[in-house]
């Protein structure tokens, strides 16, 4: 259970840092791409923040699996019931 508390604390710290990053970028011009339609957009900030989380997870919890919204997919098949995703 201590492992999950550590994961929670790491995720909380990273989320707060990502929030500060986004808040600091308010008012800046952002480049917007469209994934599937005009309603399905993604900015470079979306990708930057996702990479921030991926980097931190891989460095801190290298055995955890990652599935991300903006393109990070599992490298190989995984079993969510048997792994931390």
What do you see in this structure?
- The protein is built from two helices and two strands; from the N terminus they run αββα.
- It has one domain: 2-Layer Sandwich (Fructose-1,6-Bisphosphatase, Chain A, domain 1).
- The relative contact order is 0.13.
- It is mainly alpha-helical and 85 residues long.
- Helix 1 runs antiparallel to helix 2.
- A hairpin with a 6-residue loop joins strand 1 and strand 2.
Defining key terms:
85 residues, mainly alpha, Fructose-1,6-Bisphosphatase, Chain A, domain 1, 47% helix, 7% strand, flat, Inositol_monophosphatase-like, Inositol monophosphatase family protein
Q: How would you concisely characterize the structure shown here?
A:
By secondary structure, this protein is mainly alpha-helical.
Distance separating the two termini: 16 Å
Strand content: 5-15%
What is the percent of helical residues?
A: 40-55%
**How would you describe the shape?**
flat
**How many domain regions?**
1
Q: Which architecture would the CATH scheme give at its second level?
A: 2-Layer Sandwich
User: What is the strand arrangement across the widest sheet?
Assistant: 1-2
Q: Could you name the CATH topology?
A: Fructose-1,6-Bisphosphatase, Chain A, domain 1
Layout of helices and strands:
Elements: H1 2-24, E1 32-34, E2 41-43, H2 44-60
Antiparallel strand pairs: 1-2
Helix pairs in contact: 1-2
Pfam families: Inositol_P
InterPro entries: Inositol_monophosphatase-like (IPR000760)
Protein name: Inositol monophosphatase family protein
């Amino acid at each position: 259970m201590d492992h999950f508390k550590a994961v929670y604390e790491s995720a909380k710290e990273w989320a707060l840092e990502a929030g500060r990053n986004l808040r600091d970028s308010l008012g800046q011009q952002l480049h917007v791409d469209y994934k599937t339609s005009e309603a399905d957009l993604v900015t470079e900030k979306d990708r930057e923040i996702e990479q921030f989380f991926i980097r931190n997870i891989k460095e801190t919890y290298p055995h955890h699996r990652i599935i991300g919204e903006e393109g990070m997919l599992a490298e190989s098949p995984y079993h969510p019931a048997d792994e931390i995703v």
